[in-house]
Design a protein that fits this description.
eight-stranded parallel beta barrel, Chitobiase, domain 2, disordered N terminus, Methane Monooxygenase Hydroxylase, Chain G, domain 1, flat, TIM Barrel, 27 strands, 806 residues, metal ion binding, disulfide bond, seven-stranded mixed β-sheet, 18% strand, alpha/beta
Length: 806
């Protein structure tokens, strides 16, 4: 457990407020102490099914006896010893039940059926569920007391110790005590964890090792290794792993086992497999056999994101007939049944095979699903992503319907907080798990989250997924979010508050459509609404409150960097933390601007506005890390909330100056482009107010253009150009922005020579958005690429900001 000791050393400065466990910190909310002198019920994550006060707290002395037998789980014992040593227990003596002990505190660890453990548990109920446990702290009897930790199985023992570490708290005399409670607990879902199934840069070996240790802390029991961009997982699936890669996988398997996590190896052959080929089937089995020798006992054959309307070989046409849904399902069932019968059932200790069907994200009954329902071995576990690929919500009835469609309780692959698709470009997805109905545990075989490319940053959302999967009926998203923040900050009150601000600013959770399933910055949005209401009413305290709000945003990144000891998290979030600090400074200047307006300080207001805009522009220029995600873009922080607030502050300043409001006169205007790639990408998509869709030209023309007719001549002050959301920096670069009172000439060169045209040449698309400052007067605005070669022109949105609008 070197990792344990290393991380605890890093947290030693927080020892007085930190409850330490196998990951270094405990998930205990800062505002709700684990144990109070009055005997308050402690907060434990994941939320136990039954936790009640059973007596007074028990002092943890410097000497403890831990009673074990041959059935005591080794990982649980190691974790317990490390927890005790960190809390100042100098002498931990491990002894057999038949050997008397002299320590003032005795902890009995092992099977809940062991006579001495069962006796010490008293009337604490032992659940009849796999991975369940019972725990009781008793201050009566021998010396200071007894702690009974009994598991239904080895994993239950380990999870019980994870709960025990959260029951420890500092005592008034500087020592440590354990809450006098009785706990009876078990997981609601049999399978709980993650699937590394995203596109883009896979996690590093170090990130995976860290994730597996984290999963033990939060009582996840499943990790599915399925990175799309691992060539030996998908494109080159037939080839054996090189020796160095195989050694890394072996280390991951051992790390997983040490934290009671099932390492599931996934092999995805669907892009090239010949289902009827004995040679391909032998190659697949050989690959699985190599991983079995490493200690893998759980396997998956995903068949997602492939074309199932064509065959990869003519032999499949001869064997299964013409390609189509039914034929594909028959071929896939044949393959999967062969692996289940010929490999899984013939290898000791291997769990039932898992798969991801080609139709994985809907509730439509098709020939494909009918054939799988009828022909696929009932033992095979089928994954389902919900009623959509990225669902806005999942109800119990929908899960029951999906289970009926596949003829078994489905295994939910939830595409959250994954950020490998267009609408998530430039985003960290940090909102707590939500809009999954309590009761799903009865309709699912389990849930795995598909995390972000940023492994450590995913921990906030994953913490809350673990909470839901363990006990969906008692899940509270707000409590779980606080617990996640406390886990990462060592229960530092300032750190918890700062991380909560940061999470709120990264709260948006997109779907494949234009409507997100979690809104951006909901708390900040409410706070700003409250401010504007007070400001409009002339409340003298409104600006004071705004200053405090801006200060909280501006200083949150520095506080997070000072309190979060997970360096990988800080590295993942670095660009977003930098952008947050800049947006916070822009908000500070907004407050100063409004104060200057209130004081009739015209010069001060103008200076504050310039500084505000400069900070906002600097924040908007920060991009996501190149190569980290498949899709990249400007970092998104509180978008639609912070930027809208700054625009309203500018409008207040304009009104003070006696200027008409600055308005987007292009919204829903008459937009055209040189050609349409498809009707769904028509020119009007760039003036509909939605930055999650875009217009696209056909790509067959050199120097393509897009244009909006404003209907009449206006005084343009600024044009904001939003690039296509999913990629790429060079989609719109080396272009001209033109404003004219008359229709443009047919060629770019002619238009640029027209003395009536005001033009701006932009060589980079590097902001959020690219802002072109004019002034210019005109009716027509055109974006014109300079490229002499045929290219597409992609635009998410064009905003033309003008004043003289009636």
């Amino acid at each position: 457990m070197a990792r344990f000791g290393t991380r605890l050393a890093a947290l030693s400065a927080l020892a007085s407020v930190t409850i330490v466990g196998a990951a270094g910190v405990t998930p205990v909310a800062a505002h709700e102490p684990a144990v109070s002198p009055s005997g308050a019920t402690p907060v434990v994550s994941p939320t136990p099914h039954h936790l009640v006060r059973s007596g007074d707290d028990v002092v943890v002395p410097g000497r403890v006896d831990v009673v074990v037998d041959d059935d005591t789980d080794a990982a649980a014992l190691e974790l317990l010893r490390d927890v005790l040593h960190d809390r100042g227990v100098d002498r931990v003596r491990v002894r057999d039940a038949d050997r008397p002990g002299r320590a003032p505190l005795t902890i009995r660890l092992g099977s809940a059926e062991r006579p001495d453990v069962a006796s010490a548990l008293g009337d604490t109920e032992v659940p009849e569920a796999a991975e369940g446990y019972a725990l009781r702290v008793d201050d009566s009897g021998h010396a200071l007391g007894t702690v009974a930790i009994g598991g239904v199985d080895p994993a239950g023992q380990y999870y019980a110790v994870q709960t025990f570490r959260q029951l420890l708290a500092p005592s008034d005399d500087g020592g440590v005590r354990v809450a006098g409670v009785s706990v009876s607990d078990f997981p609601a879902m049999p399978l709980r964890g993650t699937i590394e199934g995203f596109y883009g840069s896979p996690w590093t070996h170090t990130e995976r090792l860290d994730q597996l240790a984290f999963y033990g802390d939060v009582k996840f029991n499943t990790y599915v290794y399925a990175p799309k961009d691992d060539p030996y997982h998908r494109d080159r699936w037939r080839e054996p792993y090189p020796a160095d890669k195989l050694a890394e996988l072996g280390e991951l398997v051992r790390q997983a086992g040490g934290h009671h996590v099932r390492f599931t190896f996934a092999l995805s052959p669907g892009t090239s497999i010949c289902y009827s080929s004995d040679q391909d089937r032998a190659a697949l089995t050989a690959k699985l056999e190599a991983l079995y020798r490493l200690g893998v006992r759980s396997f998956s054959i995903p068949l997602d994101d492939i074309d199932y309307t064509t065959w990869n070989c003519e032999a499949d046409r001869e064997t299964y007939g013409e390609p189509g849904r039914a034929a594909a399902a028959t071929a896939q069932a044949d393959l999967l049944n062969g692996v289940q019968d010929g490999f899984v059932e013939r290898h000791q200790g291997v769990r039932p095979l898992q798969t991801v069907p080609t139709e994985y994200g809907d509730l439509n009954d098709t020939e494909y699903k009918r054939v799988l329902r009828e022909e696929l071995d009932p033992a095979v576990v089928v994954m389902w992503t919900g009623p959509d690929v990225v669902p806005a919500s999942i109800a119990v009835g929908q899960a029951e319907q999906a289970s009926a469609l596949f003829g078994r309780n489905v295994f939910l692959w939830d595409n959250y907080p994954v950020n490998d698709f267009g609408q998530s470009a430039g985003r960290l997805l940090l909102a707590p798990y939500d809009k999954r109905e309590p009761g799903l545990s009865r309709a699912l075989s389990g849930v795995v989250s598909n995390p972000m490319n940023q492994a450590a940053a995913s921990k906030i959302a994953l913490f809350t997924v673990a909470d839901f999967a363990w006990n969906d009926h008692d899940y509270d998203r707000d409590r779980s979010a606080r617990q996640a923040a406390a886990y990462l900050t060592g229960d530092d009150p300032q750190g918890v508050a700062a991380l909560s601000v940061f999470t709120d600013l990264n709260h948006l959770a997109p779907t494949f459509g234009s409507e997100p399933w979690q809104r951006q910055a909901p708390r900040l949005s409410r706070q700003l609404d409250t401010f504007w209401a007070a400001y409009d009413d002339g409340d003298p305290g409104a600006l004071r409150d705004l200053r405090a709000l801006a200060e909280g945003v501006a200083t949150a990144p520095a506080t997070i960097r000072a309190t979060v000891r997970d360096e990988a998290f800080l590295d993942d979030a670095a660009n977003w933390l930098d952008a947050t600090a800049l947006w916070g400074r822009a908000m500070r200047e907004a407050a100063r601007l409004l104060e200057a307006v209130a004081d009739d300080d015209a010069a001060g207001a103008e200076q504050a506005r310039q500084r505000m805009r400069a900070f906002a522009d600097d924040a908007g220029a920060i991009r996501s890390v190149p190569g980290e995600n498949r899709v990249e873009g400007p970092v998104r922080i509180g978008d639609g909330v912070v930027d809208a607030f700054l625009e309203r502050v500018e409008a207040e300043h304009d009104a003070y100056l006696g200027l008409p409001p600055l308005r987007n006169v292009a919204r829903d205007g008459a937009a055209t482009q040189i050609s349409d790639w498809a009707p769904v990408y028509a020119a009007a998509k760039s003036v509909d107010g939605d930055v999650n869709n875009f217009s696209t030209t056909s790509g067959s023309e050199a120097q393509p253009w897009w244009q909006v007719d404003l209907g009449r001549s206006v005084a343009v002050e600024r044009i904001e150009i939003y690039n296509r959301v999913d990629c790429c920096a060079d989609r719109v670069r080396d272009y001209h922005v033109l404003v004219s009172d008359r229709p443009f000439a047919d060629s770019l060169d002619e238009a640029l020579r027209d003395e009536n045209v005001v033009a701006h040449h932009e060589t980079e698309q590097a902001g959020r958005p690219t802002t072109v400052e004019f002034p210019a007067t005109g009716r027509y605005v055109r974006i014109w690429l300079s490229s002499p070669e045929p290219r597409e022109l992609n635009l998410a949105e064009v905003r033309v900001l003008a004043r003289d609008v009636t």
